[in-house]
Design a protein that fits this description.
The structure is a single chain. The protein is mainly α and about 260 residues long. It contains 9 helices and 4 strands; from the N terminus they run ββααααααββααα. It has a domain of about 180 residues. A two-stranded antiparallel ribbon has the order 1-2. A two-stranded antiparallel ribbon has the order 3-4. Strand 1 and strand 2 form a beta hairpin. The radius of gyration is 19 Å and the shape is globular. Belongs to the Lgt family. One of its GO terms (cellular component) is plasma membrane. Its EC number is 2.5.1.145. It is a multi-pass membrane protein.
């Protein structure tokens, strides 16, 4: 069993101003996506330009933050936030939903495409390879916060997390960082290195994320306020991943058959 490193969630304190690691992980994720996007925008086979990438950054930030927070409130703890509406704005406490953030970014892609003469699949294909690094940093933020820990296990790399009853648990945040962040980035980035059928880069991202998240949820402790929400073994995260898996796989099959 490993010992969980006791992180101070505050990175820097300047009087009443506190800079928290969790928030900085979002900064690192956005910065990495922006830099990768500017590099990707130099490729001649897409309509995005470095200038357009700069413009899209604002749309993406709004989609991630608003969608992620609203998604968490609606999917994971609506009764709590209905009783404590002001806590909705306390994003420094954690509580962001990837699926909500994904919906927010999809909406941003659609609106951005309409404003810049790009189709929704074109924007989605461009943006998808930029997302996994942000997921990596986000999961590292969850680990630093000591939240979203895994289920009990006696594996040698298990660790007891604060507030988790002292039991050794899967460091599921690190599993997700490795799969949804690092490995998914390699897969989607390599696949997107040359032109593909329209929408297929985005579809591969949805399929890959859905599969990786679905698998890791077997090691992750279900949200306490929800427990298992379907079939006595499926978590909310798994339920929300099913449409991603089905849509991603279906689009890939359809697109390649159409282009054959």
């Amino acid at each position: 069993m490993l010992t969980y490193p006791q992180f101070d969630p505050v990175m820097i304190s300047l009087g009443p101003l506190q800079l928290r690691w969790y928030g900085m992980m979002y900064v690192f994720g956005i910065l990495s996506g922006w830099l990768l996007g500017r590099y990707r925008a130099t490729k001649p086979w897409n309509k995005m330009t470095p200038k357009r990438m700069d413009d899209f950054l604002t749309w993406a930030i709004l989609g991630v933050v608003l969608g992620g927070r609203i998604g968490y409130v609606l999917f994971y703890n609506p009764s709590f936030y209905l009783a404590n509406p002001l806590r909705i704005f306390a994003v420094w406490e954690g509580g962001m939903s990837f699926h909500g953030g994904c919906l927010g970014v999809l909406l941003a892609c659609w609106l951005f495409g309409r404003a810049h003469d790009m189709t929704f699949p074109e924007v989605g294909d461009f943006v998808s390879p930029l997302v996994p690094p942000g997921l990596f940093f986000g999961r590292i933020g969850n680990f630093i916060n000591g939240e979203l820990w895994g289920r009990y296990t006696d594996l040698p790399w298990a660790m007891p997390f604060p507030g988790a009853g002292g039991l050794p648990r899967h460091p599921s945040q690190l599993y997700e960082a490795a799969l949804e962040g690092a490995l998914l980035f390699v897969i989607v980035w390599v696949y997107s290195a040359k032109p593909r059928p329209k929408g297929c880069v985005g579809a591969l991202f949805l399929l890959g994320y859905g599969l990786f998240r679905f698998l890791v949820e077997f090691a992750r402790e279900p949200d306490r306020q929800l427990g298992f929400v379907a079939l006595h073994w499926m978590s909310m995260g798994q339920v929300l991943c099913l449409p991603m898996i089905l849509f991603g796989a279906g689009w890939l099959i359809w697109a390649y058959r159409k282009s054959a």
